């Protein structure tokens, strides 16, 4: 029988916990690979609570339930989750350990799925709750899955080969690099559970997760450069088998746990951020000597080779033309007041598809009008969808997955009225301060060894001068026809809660440059381009210096700029940027679209 209400689902989970002799269970947004985006089968938190955000977790005991989200989702969680069923808790201020101590009795057994959490997560939680007599228990099977009667099956889509001409390196070459790393560390093997790492390492892609072209699988790489790929048989084609060759053994995904027991006495590495507890427990049970080390593919994947850089530039040129056509369409149609957020998002995707080779969007498009634009991670759906009001700001953050590269761009534009209207002085001031910070990041030059946390202030300085700020990072890494959010690099305030801010920036890394400003219930502003980290030639330089080359080419709305706030060099930057936009996009456009780009890229 299908349970239609979240109250019924919560009750069914509690009955299952009672049957197993458990007092509680933790429900994360996660899969067995600690992916950012997960397949439908792993959307357990959404099924239980109705919450549709991309980060958060719930905990259910026999008498209490709470859902924990960060500040990005404070409004969304109240809209989507019944406050009579779940308490709203905000992280990092509220901790799961503290909440469990509040609601649990001495001797309580709180279960977790060991295939959905990392070792560090469990260790930290145990330290918080054990003094209160609470025990964390790994569940032999997921109790929520036992009551989710219509749970979707994992995707059966076939994996496919990512051509070496786009990858720039052979899988054999990449595996040899990992083998050298294993030998250098005195290790016999490394378990690679992260789906984008597997895709990069083997030069394969898949269709198992929305927005990220990966295939559900695991890999174990050995010190001799051979590897074992654990993947469902229905996903394997003759082309894939031929591509992988004799050095990669293909085994059924269901054999993975048992295979970990074959490493008795061997030294095996797993990544603490992607290797779930279940992997570590299986290695330990089999007698392996496992240790936690960073996935050796992550840095190698982040530093793009010349083929990947060229592919990304090709994808960006195509994407820029599509986004520009969309912005012209929006300028013409939106002032009538009949275009809503969902329609705009669909139209943008349509323009991308018309320009060919689009495989997917790289994330859910943030199509945000008026006050919705003040929510940095707003996700439009049928319930939240509104008409885009004439005489307001509209923000669209979107991206595409092309075989040549992954794109991510944000543009904030003024929606005019039929009779004509002007942005407020405050809107222009904030937009221009965001633009000034964006220019500072784009123009930055810094010595080798600099990390993203050290340059984040460049983007915020002009907002700080006005007594305002933004609560998200300034930039994240981007993959090559892979994850739109890729580590280890990141530009953000250098605090303990911002992973990657201490990662060194290297030539070849792609990052976003996306400062913003958000006025609650009024408007939001963000300007985002992608940039490539490159070596900068400086006469007389003492050491190696790096900077950025811009990769994204779409006009920036000049109606929102307060020119008096810009310096001569900043005006020169904008004029130069727009000249390059015009030169790149003009050959791809015609008619009204071409005329629009030529008009929008005239000198300020």
Automatic annotation (TrEMBL):
It comes from the Bacteria. Residues 9-140 form the Creatinase N-terminal domain. The keyword Metal-binding applies. Residues 545-604 form the Peptidase M24 C-terminal domain. InterPro entries: Creatin/AminoP/Spt16_N, Creatinase/aminopeptidase-like, Creatinase_N, Pept_M24, Pept_M24B, Peptidase_M24_C, X-Pro_aminopeptidase_P. One of its GO terms (cellular component) is cytoplasm. GO terms for molecular function: metal ion binding; metalloaminopeptidase activity. Residues 312-533 form the Peptidase M24 domain. Keywords: Aminopeptidase, Hydrolase, Metal-binding, Protease. It holds the Pfam family Creatinase_N. Belongs to the peptidase M24B family. This is X-Pro aminopeptidase.
């Amino acid at each position: 029988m299908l349970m239609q209400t979240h109250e019924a689902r919560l009750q069914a989970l509690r009955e299952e916990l009672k049957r197993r002799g458990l007092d509680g269970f933790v429900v994360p947004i996660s899969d067995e690979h600690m992916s950012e985006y997960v397949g439908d089968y792993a959307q357990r938190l959404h099924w239980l609570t109705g919450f549709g955000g991309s980060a958060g977790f719930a905990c259910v005991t026999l008498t209490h339930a709470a859902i924990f989200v960060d500040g990005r989702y404070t409004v969304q969680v109240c809209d989507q989750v019944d406050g009579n069923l779940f308490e709203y808790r905000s992280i990092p201020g509220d901790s799961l350990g503290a909440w469990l101590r509040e609601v649990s009795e001495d001797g309580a057994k709180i279960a977790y799925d060991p295939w959905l959490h990392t070792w560090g997560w469990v260790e930290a939680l145990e330290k918080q709750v054990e003094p209160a007599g609470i025990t964390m228990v790994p569940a032999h099977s997921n109790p929520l899955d036992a009551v989710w009667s219509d749970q979707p099956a994992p995707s059966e889509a076939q994996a496919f080969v990512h051509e070496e001409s786009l990858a720039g390196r052979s899988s054999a070459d990449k595996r040899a690099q990992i083998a050298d790393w294993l030998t250098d560390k005195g290790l016999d093997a490394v378990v690679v559970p992260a789906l984008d790492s597997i895709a990069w390492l083997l030069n394969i892609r898949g269709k198992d997760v929305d927005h990220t072209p990966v295939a559900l699988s695991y890999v174990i790489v050995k010190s001799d450069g051979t590897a074992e790929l654990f993947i469902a048989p229905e996903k394997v084609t003759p082309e894939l088998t031929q591509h992988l060759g004799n050095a990669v053994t293909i085994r059924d995904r269901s054999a993975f746990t048992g295979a970990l027991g074959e490493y008795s006495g061997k030294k095996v590495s797993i990544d603490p951020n992607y290797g779930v507890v279940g992997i570590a427990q299986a290695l330990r049970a089999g007698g392996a000597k496992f240790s936690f080390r960073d996935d050796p593919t992550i840095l190698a994947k982040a530093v793009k080779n010349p083929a990947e850089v060229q592919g990304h530039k090709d994808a960006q040129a195509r994407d820029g033309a599509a986004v520009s056509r969309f912005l012209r369409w929006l300028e013409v149609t939106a002032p009538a007041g009949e275009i809503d957020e969902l329609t705009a998002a669909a139209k943008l995707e349509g323009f991308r598809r018309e320009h060919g080779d689009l495989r997917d969007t790289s994330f859910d498009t943030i199509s945000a009008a008026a006050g919705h634009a003040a929510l940095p991670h707003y996700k439009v759906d049928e319930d939240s969808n509104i008409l885009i009001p004439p005489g307001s700001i509209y923000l669209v953050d979107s991206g595409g997955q092309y075989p040549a590269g992954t794109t991510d761009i944000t543009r904030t534009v003024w929606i005019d009225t039929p009779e004509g209207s002007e942005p407020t002085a405050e809107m222009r001031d904030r937009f221009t301060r965001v633009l000034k910070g964006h220019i500072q990041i784009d123009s930055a030059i810094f010595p080798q060894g600099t990390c993203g946390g050290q340059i984040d202030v460049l983007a915020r300085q002009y907002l700080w001068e006005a007594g305002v700020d933004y609560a998200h990072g300034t930039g994240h890494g981007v993959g090559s026809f892979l994850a739109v959010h890729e580590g280890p690099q990141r530009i953000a305030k250098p605090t303990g809660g911002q992973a990657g801010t201490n990662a060194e920036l290297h030539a070849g890394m792609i990052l976003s440059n996306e400062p913003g400003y958000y006025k609650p219930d009024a408007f939001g502003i963000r300007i985002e381009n992608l940039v490539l980290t490159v070596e900068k030639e400086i006469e007389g330089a003492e050491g190696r210096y790096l900077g950025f080359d811009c990769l994204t080419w779409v006009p920036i709305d000049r109606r929102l700029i307060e020119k008096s706030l810009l310096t001569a060099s900043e005006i020169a930057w904008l004029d130069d940027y727009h000249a390059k936009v015009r030169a790149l996009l003009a050959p791809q456009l015609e008619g009204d679209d071409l005329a629009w780009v030529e008009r929008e890229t005239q000198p300020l």
